[in-house]
Amino acid sequence: MLSVINEERILQEFLSLVAIPSESGQERQLADLLKQKLTELGFAVEEDGAGQPWGWNTGNLIGRLPGTVNVPALLLSAHMDTVVPGVGVKPVVRDGLITSSGDTILGGDDKAGIVAILETLRVITEQQIPHGPLEVVFTIGEEQGLRGAKGLNSRQLQAKFGYVLDSSGAPGTIVVQGPAQYQIEAVVQGRAAHAGMNPEDGINAIQVAAQAIARMKLGRIDEETTANIGLIEGGQARNIVPEKCYVKGEARSLNRAKLEAQTQAMCAAFRVAAEEVGAQIDLEVELLYDELALGEHDEVVKIAVTAAQRLGWEPKLVKTGGGSDANIFHARGIPTANLGIGMTQVHTTQERIAVADLVDNARYLVEIIRLVGEREK
After folding, report:
1. Which residue among the candidates 142, 143, 291, 325 is catalytic per the annotation?
2. Which of 27, 48, 81, 357 is catalytic?
3. Which tens digits make up the pLDDT trace of 293-309?
4. Residue 155: predicted pLDDT
5. What's the whole-number mean pLDDT along residues 351-359?
6. Is 142 a catalytic residue?
7. What pLDDT, on a 0 to 100 scale, did the predictor assign at position 377?
8. pTM (2 decimals)?
9. Catalytic site residue 275?
10. Rg (alpha carbons) of the chain, rounded to whole number
11. How far apart are alpha carbons 280 and 183 in whole angstroms?
């Protein structure tokens, strides 16, 4: 028997949540509301201190609901923060699609995931669907390098596997592979001089950075690997040879050996360019997250596939070039798949999602929980 989702309820909740500003580091108002909603649904809710290292006044929310059957605990997760511009969102519903008014993002990334979880919890209660213990984690700072998930004490969780609702693709899309990512920050130290009177006495830090970048292979490296230089800042004035330049970039790959090789090549390009002219280079390389690597025989994948088939969908196992909180949970011993929830053109003012996908996301999650509950020991 398939569950009936309250379409009007999930739509109205989504419209209300996207109107609440929650740009990264500013999730307090949304967190307070979600804490109240989870408590009303019978969850024991706590908030951690994951935001403190960055001076944020909000932490991750961790909610726990006892099971009605004896099966392993299941993790459900979505993130509370959005990218900018995310203040003053005015959602518009037209012809079954939800967009913003055009001057902000919509915030379906990831409030579509949040409302799917909330509606699912209401449905399993209303329809008395047997379920195991549930752990819901709403994270902060996902858009800032998965900071909330990385700051979460995973030892507090009992879940044996889980699902993050935070990917593009229609419901029934299951992300089973995602890249590891290195962040690369370089500071080139040159030497200042007057650009018109004695430029030969200076070392142009911006030029050094440019020569380093010109040596790099960027963009699509191969089918598993990408690289990018995304930020460059330097100089004080047009008539001063710039003595300092800051560059920020990244490398990603589904293959760790390829990732290491690409990252080393980018760092070597900075060192060689600096050495050629006597500049100094300070490099910082940080692993932002490990790769996500699941297979079709992993239990978390098999459950998602079977649930999709029960709904009459053709499940799709896909790779992605982006990271998500699923990478963090998976690396810490909780096999976690990232589910497609129908959001498109995310991180832009053209972001949109279909009302039908909001409904299907909840239907899918209910079916996953139902299927897990049927595996009572």
Report:
1. 142
2. 81
3. 999 999 999 999 999 99
4. 87
5. 98
6. yes
7. 53
8. 0.93
9. no
10. 23
11. 20
